[in-house]
Fold these 2 entries.
Entry 1:
Amino acid sequence: MKFVNINKSIICVAALLVIIAGTSCKKGFLDVNDDPNRSTDKNIRADLLFPQAAVYVGNRMATNNLRFLNCWMGYFAQPGDFAILQDETSYSIDFTFGDNLWQNHYDALYDLYLTKVKALAVQDSVLAGSAMVLSARLFQDLVDIFGNIPYSQAFQTLIYRQPAYDKGQDVYNALQKSLDSAITFLHATPSDNFEAVDIVNHGDATQWIKFANTLKLRLLIHQSQMAGFNPAPEIAKIISNGGVLHAGEDIDVNPGFVNENAKQSPFYANFGNTPTGADASTSTRANAYFVDLLGHYDDARIERFFNPVGTSFVGATYGLVEGNPGGAASSRIGPGLAGSATQDAWIFPAYESMFLEAEAIARGWMPGDVQTAYEAAVTESFVWLGVEDAADWAHEYLTTADIAIWANAGSSVSDQVKFIAFQKYIALGGVDPTESWSDLRRLNMIPDNGYISVNPSRISNTLPVRLLYPQSEYTANGSNVRAQGTINQFTSKIFWQP
């Protein structure tokens, strides 16, 4: 596991001071005996760290590190003027494949950990709770991608130079408790500058609590296929603490993105345009599978997911060695995802929470009408993507597309949750491929295998169920990672998989 030197966390302090200017400066900060430009533990305050850490979380959702999952899940593909990535499209991945993803997630988690520790040291429990909620999002993703991970000993470098791995189930359980603590912290009185420092929810503690509840539900939903699993105690907490995120309650971050180098909104910077207007990712285009799926059902969201080529939407076939349309002849990522250099960076869209709630209602875990909840989630997806006249188009889709009409969902819990999860898969195109992959691994809800790579060298007709541990771990934390045994990307399942 890579550990971050403390100086890394104050690289952007000067920029962050602009974000919170006028709200956190103290007379002593400019004392002649102190150099405010010198990186010391004394002047690395929680309120300076948090905005940077929050932006890093938004970066993690928009990162090129997850591009492979957008391709695996049938959302994106490479155009014909690029050679296909043999390891990715054949599923023959090695120990270096997930290295950057692992290290970058832990980099962000380190800043969140430091924020929590420093906030609690000055009795700023609301800021600490906010950092803990964001941490839970990233830690769950790491478990869902890699399995067992360093958790309980992570970042305590003075005690544990090589942190042990915690079982995935234990991390999930610990995250439920951490989120409970975060909710308790968030009920406290915030600091005077919390609203300015909080570039996620702008001082709205209720929104933070709903986000924490949503993550608690997400942890439960992923374990839904485990024999004997009982979510009732945690569901009761979620309901009593105000429930989950609903329409319009998106979790985003924006420190003031502008159309300049290294200052653009991250998804736009990665998949939209450079500050000079050039294509930021000439190797990323629409996947023909997703284009065909959306087009077949006249789904209005297609024009938000992708840009047309002339009057048509054109995708590339994932893994095709020769014959794909070139970049100029295939659809780029559209304005619903990469719309502006100044757009908010999403951390958790409200409609993803609404799909989780719909599944929980279908399972009998939460009260409510499942059809109403499901249709609200689909409609919110249209709204979130910016479809014009979104409610009307969503209604048209929900009443004419056979894959969306609730009457076609079936009467069994199994059929209904797969029906909901397939629509969730469509809604999450390019937004949260980790969640789509998790749903596929637990429910196998996609009705065909058109998303599978056509590379003739592929070594499996199904997607890997996990990534291998990164090479950096075998180098720096060898004994602990080797203690996890021999890992295979197709047979070493995540603990919650059926």
Entry 2:
Amino acid sequence: MTSPRIAIAGAGLGGLACARVLQLHGVDVTVFEQEPAAGARPQGGSLDMHADTGQAALRTAGLHDEFRALARPEGQQMRAVDPLTCEVILDEIPEDGAEFRPEIDRGDLRGLLLGSLTPGTVHWGRSVADVTEGPRIIFGDGTTEEFDLVVGADGAWSRVRRALTGVRPGYSGVTFAEFGLDDADRRHPALAALTGQGTMMAKRGRRALCAQRNSNGHIRCYAIYYAAEDERPGLLERYAGWHPDLLAFLHEHDGEITHRPLFVLPVPHAWTHTPGLTLLGDAAHLMPPLGVGANLALLDGTELATAIATAPALDDGVLAYEAGMLPRSIETAKGCAEGLHHLLSDDHPAGRDAAA
């Protein structure tokens, strides 16, 4: 039997995990990525890999041991701080050997997945501009190719989703302002001590401030608040009245502050099965970034690949994948929408449950 021609749009975590498991089963696959090279841009912050989703996916991909060598179990620490007094009101320190959700830098995890693929699997600098019947990919340079299956792993503004559902993300009403501290233990020791080894959170008045350990001494920080989509308020004014030790994160950060309006897909987001097309990760279920998105993308990718490789026909595998993924993603998206409200509500305590 001729091997199906499978294309994955997007070399993010979910797309790479899907490609890895397809190759483990001897199925040919090509990944198309618009970025010109693997190191073209920073890959973002630290991710907690949950044992029952992200880590399960990495086991399926045969990469769990390599993941453990890169992961930081100490990063599971969760600390909540009173925004007015800076008193530590919650400090969850992981027990020795606890590895339910150790942290790993997104760039390290992506590098692990890329290194596991057959050389040449990822075609860099190949943006997917559109997908038409066939399915046929129209690339950014105007060239086209036909495939038996096109997998949309191309994130929030997926071009493959546009061909399948036409649904676009909408603004959630919440903005994340992102900034960082470099070489924090040496250059910002007081802030490093306040952060701890994992994540520190303070919240009050529909605002939150989060600091998170990454590797190599970097601390990534997020100011989180309700705002109009195009609003760019001064953060010091927005957080006026908070304890000076917390405001020091805003004073002492290195580099620029990046404002990221938070977009999400409607809940539920589903589609009528269409042979030749499917979605995974943020392309399928863009949710608030509360610790589940990367885990679900990895699980989506490995489950889709396993279903394709073990089903009697390509479309049977895609159908089986969608039958499990769509109900799971809808339920999780509902929980994340509630979690975002909890995160910015004074009615709920700061800490891990606020972002669950």
